[in-house]
Design a protein that fits this description.
Length: 183
Amino acid sequence: MEMVTLAAGTLAVRLAWGTTTATDLLAGLLGEPVSVRHACPACGSDRHGRPTAVVQDGRTTAVSIAHAGAMTLVALAGQGRVGVDLEPLDSVAPPGVRGDADPLDLSDLELWVLKEAFLKASGDGLRRDPSTVGLDEPGAVWGRVEIDGYVAAWCVLQPTRGSFGSLRASSQAENSGRRSSRE
């Protein structure tokens, strides 16, 4: 399991990933046992939808979870809404992910993972056409995590201008949390 805490504008985002369960990763981030509950904003189901981590004393925190093969990525933010996505490097992005204003230096798969992280954070999910999501969404702070063999991204929503960050995560020593702006 690898863990990192990043500055996301004025907020902190905590990420963990590994070949274990989301519950174990979240327990590692929170330092205590957790259970995960889901609530779908569209249909009210508790079998899917936005996840929430519940700690032993009943406190809850909003989290995001992504699975790809044996790898799991989780995130939590003390404030704001967070989303993550994860895909194997050999995956193909779904058709129609690229919008007219999307940067050409990002592959369709990179765009898909970034946009899916945003769609999870916003709560829109796939009810919103990914091609309408821009990397300049108001209040969105974005980042990528390079996990060997995967494309991974996070997004946290806060009331500020959009920005973009990148984190290399193939070894703990490389987790500097450097950020660059894309406006």
